[in-house]
Write a structure and sequence with these properties.
The protein folds into two domains: 195 residues, 2-enoyl-CoA Hydratase, Chain A, domain 1; 47 residues, Lyase 2-enoyl-coa Hydratase, Chain  A, domain 2 (Orthogonal Bundle), CATH 1.10.12. The protein is 48% helix and 16% strand. The protein has nine helices and ten strands. The strands form two sheets. A six-stranded mixed sheet has the order 1-2-3-5-7-10, sandwiched between helices. Strands 4-6-8-9 form a four-stranded mixed sheet. Helix 1 links the parallel strand 2 and strand 3. Helix 3 runs antiparallel to helix 4 and helix 7 packs antiparallel against helix 8. The longest helix is centred in the N-terminal third of the chain and has 20 residues. 37% of the residues are buried. The protein binds acetoacetyl-coenzyme A (CAA). Acetoacetyl-coenzyme A binds next to strand 6 and helix 3.
Length: 260
């Protein structure tokens, strides 16, 4: 599929999606939401892609939120549908078997922060700014912000950030656990790609099972979570990659994983 608002590139065993609407600081309109869904599906169906990165074009913004131009004249019902559509695309992203990394290169606000939070990992450039400023617009976060921000940083920080619409810098985002790492802007993409290649070299079924156990396990009680972990681990025992990984350990050589 040809895209107008995003760029999808392959690089060996990883892919990079760049949100490309620099005139509006990469704000996401409906068309971009649909293109993202199509790109996610393309990546998910390509088993040769083992990890992918989402970033924004330019040096100022990752994504400055949903495109506020599209809010004009919306009825509550239309507003609900717009929010549920974005939520479903971000949930698809969150549940993908292919691990995702947000390379946050500037403003990650509203729907931009929400997209970064739906990724598995977040690397931020030193100039990145995060925020859920929807309350300043008279609404609340609608693409998962009230839920994922709370899960990632806890109610204390989530409520403060959402109630005040305050932006936080990359270092503060790292301190509260919103991002994994902060790097200078010029090193951002390389750092994200190195991490993606590192994950891509791992056994993909084991990575997918680890993701499932962490994500599903964190939504249930401990006993149920441990049961999910044990079942997911059992599945790994049935893979050729498990045989290769253990064999390589005893032969003192790097393992070559096939994804089987
Ligand atoms: N939607 C539409 N246009 C946007 C936009 C957005 N989210 N964010 C920025 N733009 C546009 C601006 O209107 C401006 O366009 P013009 O040049 O035509 O005036 C252009 O991008 C550049 O922006 P600024 O001139 O405002 O740049 P700045 O450096 O002065 O400020 C900023 C940067 C602080 C990011 C500011 O643009 C801003 O506050 N943006 C809005 C952030 C926001 O409220 N995001 C939440 C959106 S709602 C949401 O996401 C709901 C949800 O949960 C899904």
């Amino acid at each position: 599929m040809g895209f107008k608002n995003i760029i999808l590139e392959r690089e060996e065993d990883i892919a990079v999606i760049t949100i490309n609407r620099p005139k509006v600081l990469n704000a996401i309109n409906r068309e971009t939401v649909d293109e993202l869904q199509a790109a996610f599906e393309e990546i998910e169906q390509d088993t040769a892609i083992r990890a992918f990165i989402i970033t924004g074009s330019g040096e100022k913004a990752f994504v400055a939120g949903a495109d506020i131009n599209e809010f004009t004249g919306l009825t509550p019902e239309e507003g609900r549908l717009l929010m549920q559509h974005g939520q479903s695309v971000y949930s698809y992203l969150e549940h993908m078997g292919t691990p995702s990394i947000a390379a946050v290169n500037g403003y990650a606000l509203g729907g931009g922060c929400e997209m970064a939070m739906a990724c598995d990992l977040r690397i931020a450039s030193a100039n990145a700014k995060f925020g859920q400023p929807e309350t300043k617009l008279g609404i609340i976060p609608g693409w998962g912000g009230t839920q994922r921000l709370t899960l990632l940083v806890g109610k204390t920080h989530a409520k403060e950030l959402i109630y005040t619409s305050r932006f936080i810098g990359a270092e503060e985002a790292a301190v509260i656990g919103l991002v994994n790492k902060v790097v200078p802007q010029e090193e951002l993409l390389k750092t994200a790609k190195d991490l993606a290649h590192q994950i891509a070299a791992m056994p993909p079924i084991a990575i997918r099972m680890a993701k499932l156990a962490i994500d599903k396990g964190s939504q249930v009680d401990m006993d149920t979570g441990l049961n999910i972990e044990a079942q997911a681990c059992a599945l790994c025992f049935a893979t050729e990659d498990k045989i290769e990984g253990c064999k390589a350990f005893f032969e003192k050589r790097p393992a070559k994983f096939q994804g089987k």
